[in-house]
């Protein structure tokens, strides 16, 4: 009981500390703008040096914003964002929109989050980085070479199977088509099998069973408990939520091949399950292979990249290379968007300091409070949970928004919900 009380107090303290930090960042930013107001803007863009940001999701997009809005107007640096997606992929809502037909809300237009950066400060390149060397990044399709003075790696994680954890498409139209296919397949199945009992698998199985109660929905998970990376109280609550909806959960089992043969799949134990559609929710891995040529020793067997507390890569020969978000090895068990953004801010400020003649002194230390999770258990229920590794705190809520308050995600990134010029151009 005492431990739980301590957890509540330190979580509240964390929330206030974060509010304080954000207010301080905003004051610092305002102060910089006032200082910069007397400086003439750079007019000759010929000699611009590049701060290259690889990946524009929670970590990279935020780092780009901090850098673009904090550099002095006459700075000879510009931000080059290399990101293959045409839109920001809102990962949190993907399992829901695999079942519920509101897929357009998962793709947030890029751009407005960088509003306020001086003209010419930011350049977008919608491509994928294939490899990196000491001075340049090389692009996959065009084979173009882009030199850098500073490099920010924010390439996150990928999922081999794509949905429901990531969207394996670069344009919004292709991404929406993949989500619609998934909705159609789930709707058409009588025996749905979901493999992987992490958050994406639990949420998708629960949503599908609540939307289509007549279907047989089975969740297969290789561990002793669903949500195995979280505490036992959340594990038990998630299992109970699944059972209440009528999802059959099979633990300590794996699908043998992942393929459906004559309407069945075979598990590793030899047991067979009826199945006419299977959703694989396993296997997210950090996207770092393109760094293997530059810093092989910094890449851990898990694929994450070792960093110093300043989030510079753990390689003294590369002081101008920074890493943030899910691809950074910062010691977080459950990577999440809040810590990715906080790392993006640390990297952004350190790059600005280094680019203006100072030293990168901001540091990042993980805090358990950032791992707070809201797990949906069907279309109208959720459990919020936080843990410091010793004790857990969780509470249930009724959910009224079928789209999981997507509008907040859009507004947070400066976009008007659900207004997208791209929709007009595609008509
Ligand atoms: C289904 C699901 C639900 C989630 N729900 C929550 C939640 O409710 N709350 C929460 O806090 N977190 C949640 N998370 C976790 C959160 O989404 C991640 O922690 C976050 O997306 C990490 O952000 P990131 O910027 O590090 O990387 P990512 O989001 O993985 O993005 C990486 C970016 O880099 C780009 N990229 C990759 N390789 C290259 C390359 N070679 N060249 C150029 N660009 C490249 C990609 O296109 C992508 O845009 C959820 C995750 C999933 C999968």
From TrEMBL:
It comes from Apiospora phragmitis. Residues 50-343 form the FAD/NAD(P)-binding domain. InterPro entries: FAD/NAD-bd_sf (IPR036188), FAD/NAD-binding_dom (IPR023753). It holds the Pfam family Pyr_redox_2. This is FAD/NAD(P)-binding protein.
